[in-house]
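haha ok so turns out i had the wrong file open the whole time. this is the CORRECT one, sorry everyone. sequence first:
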Amino acid sequence: MPSRGSAIRITKQSVDALRATSNNVVVWDRDLPGFGVRVYGSGRKLYVVQSRGPAGSKRLTLGRHGELSPTQARKLARIAIGRIKRGEDPKPKVPEPEPNVGELARRFMQAHVAPNCKARTESHYRGFIHNHILPALGDKPIGMVGRQDVAALHFALRDRPSAANCTLRVLSQMFRKAEEWGLMPEESNPCRSVREYRQRWRERYLTEAEYRRLGQVLKDAEANGSIGKPAVAALRLLMLTGCRRDEILTLRWDDVDRNARELRLRDSKTGPAMIALTSAVERVLDGIERIPGNPWVITGNQPARRLMTLKSTWRRAQALAGLEGIRLHDLRHSYASRALALGKSLTMIGKLLNQVQLQTTARYAHLMLDAEKAAAARVGDAIAAQVSGRRAE
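then structure:
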């Protein structure tokens, strides 16, 4: 029998082998501080927890060996230790039954996503949950989900790295909330050690010739009515501002401040923001017919409604202009690449694009390197020409 204060790895085999030399001995687990088993001379063995929190040291009896397995007791111990350290009652008065992944997903969407996320984000989360997470893990109790289960789900989506990584992130957030809600032990998230797939950013930028072709297509479409005027105006604003699609589609006339020369974005992806009202943007706005009673800059077909999508419009414009491989969102990337070509810094481009995370803007770093190389070549050629006495090309 280990002596008082000694530690063992608590397993069924090790606990079964414990014998008390006195009436009351506690043997602690060497892997989880504060988790132990109390052994009585009668042979009875109780799992216990002892930890220190804001109110001092607290001890809790978890249950009897045999009625609780060491694995179950260890899980309860982690939860109790976390509650003690947070200053909470180590044993909730009304213990919650362990939910399965489907039940956790419903609570996650209702209690966390719905009140805290935008409708589009909520839709994305719901898609990853219903299309990938629930079919694979929905009926499984959350405590039974291990790293191997998460890795298998991630691997099953390996041919779609972006979907695989997004699914992993959503599942990880679900388990983090389960920890916060006391449904799982702290630091037990099975997603933590699953590595995301490396992704290559899809990069396609409009060339000067493609800009000219797209501009002509929009001009012709506006004249012959093959594309509605509001949609044409939206595409032009996207090209001229680098804004996200929904930032333009949800722009109101009240958001256009001609005195301050600003477009105020009330609900952009990163929160309220300001976009400079340039002369080119102002000319587009001047060409838009304002409809009484409709507050939207880009109007829809129904009274007082806005245009909801540009999918079909972009497909038509893309085909007419011969823009192979160009997505609507690539207009934003093209705006950034043109800013780099004009010598703007990554920091400035982040501000122009209303991006708050530097790593998002950093995807354009290689374009800056290309611009720097071209500039260095021009400077070097000019100096070489002066040194050699010939004219620079």
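The first strand starts at residue 7 and ends at 8.
again sry for the mixup
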